[in-house]
Design brief:
With about 425 residues, the protein is of the alpha+beta class. It has twelve helices and 22 strands. A four-stranded mixed sheet has the order 2-15-17-16. The mean pLDDT is about 95. It binds shikimate-3-phosphate. The site of shikimate-3-phosphate has 10 residues, from helix 5.
Amino acid sequence: MSNKSITVQKALHPLRGSITVPGDKSISHRVAILGALASGSMQVKNYLCSEDCINTLRAMQQLGAKVEVTDSQQNFTLTGTGMHPVAPAHDIDCGNSGTGMRLMAGVMAALPFSTRMYGDESLSKRPMKRIMDPLTAMGAKITACGEKPGCAPLEIQGTKLQAIHYDLPMASAQVKSAVLLAGMLTEGTTSVHQPAITRDHTERLFAHFGIPCSISADSLDIAVSGPVAIQAKDITVPGDISSAAFWMVAAAIVPGSEITLKNVGLNPTRDAIITVLKRMGADISITTINTTGEPYGDIVVRYSPNMKGTDVLPHEIPNLIDEIPVLSIAAAFAEGTTTIRNAAELRVKESDRISTTVGNLRAMGAHVEEYEDGFAVTGGYALHGATMDSYGDHRIAMSFLMAGLMAEGETTLLQCENINTSYPSFEEHLRQLTHC
Ligand code: S3P
C-alpha cells in the first residue's frame, strides 16, 4: 500500500496557461499490442509512459517486440514480431491495469504457448469472468487463480480458437476488444454485438493497420475476419481526454481561470464529458486539428460561474465512464441536481467509484445521494477541505484534488501513488496551471 499524499489549498489564483496532457491510455495499450504483432517497424509518438502502459509494452517486449527509444521516452521505434511472438520468459505483470490484462488475455489465448498474468491488489479483485466467458466459448483455456473467484492471476494455455458471435452482456470496450483481438488471430469471422456504443479505439486501429473489420451503421455490431496480417505503420497517440477532464472541471469552477489543453483526443466515443459539461453551462471551445484516424484538437476552458445540474443520459455513460468522478466535482459546484444512473460498471473499476466518490464528496460537505447504479449530487453548498483516501485509485485522487482547489482550507488525498498509472506529470501540471 502506498503512502504518498498530496495536499492542495483553495486556489488563490485562477488556473492559467497551456499544457499538453500525456498520451491516451486506451490507445497506447492497443498500439503496443498491435505493433508487437505487426511485421516491420513503426515510429510511435506520444505513447503514454505511465505504469499501466509501460507494463503492457514490457509484456510485448517479452513476446519479442523491440523498443528503441528515439528522442524521449514517449517516442520510440517499435519493431513487431510479424505474428511470430515467442513465449514470455516470465509471468506478465499487468500492475493496476484492467485494460492491459483483459486485452492481452484475448491475444495470449490464441498464441501457441502458456502465459501467466498477474496484477496488484486492486486488479486482483476485478472481474475477469467477463472476458473468460467469450474467450472460453472460442475454445480458450484460461484459469482464474485468484483468491477471489473469477479474478487474476490468469493462467492461459494458448491454443487455436474458433470464431464466434458474442452478445456483450455489458457495454465494455475491454470485453469487446478482447474478443476482437482473439478473433483477429482466429480463422473465420468473429463478431460482437454491444448493447451501447463504447470507445472504438480498437476498430480505428484495425483500420490504421489495414486489418479488415466491418462495423454496422449503428456501430453496435463489429466483425473481424482472421487470421490477419498486420503491417507496421507510424502513429502519434493524441492526448488523453480523461486526463484533460480534470483541468476542464478545475478551470470551469475556479473564478477567473482560462486554460488551453493542447492536442487532446476528441474521439466521438470519448467526448461526452465535453458535451455534458457544456450542457451544464461550462465555457469550453474547441479547435479541431485532425479529423482522421483518432481526431484531436485544442480545448480552451474558461471559468463558468453559472453551471447548472443535469441528468447524464444512459447512452452518455459508457462515453464518459472514466470521467464520472471528476464530473461529480463539477456537479457539486453547479446549481441544482446532477443525476448519474445506469453506471453500475463504476463499482468494478480501480475502486468502487460509486462508493468512493460519494464517500469523499460527503467528507467535503457535498449533498449527495447514492444509488446502486450511480448517484445524485445537489450543488451550491460550499465544500470544505478534508483529508481523504484515494483508495489507491488514480482518478479518485485527481478528482478530489480538483475539488480541493475550490474547497475552504486544505485538502489532502492519501495513497496518491497510483496517479502514476495514468498521469505521471499530473503534479507538474498542477503546479504549472495553479502557479504554486
Ligand atoms: C477501457 C474501457 C473502459 C474504461 C477503461 C479503459 C479501454 O473499461 O473504463 O479505463 O481502454 O477499453 P470497460 O471496458 O470496463 O468499460
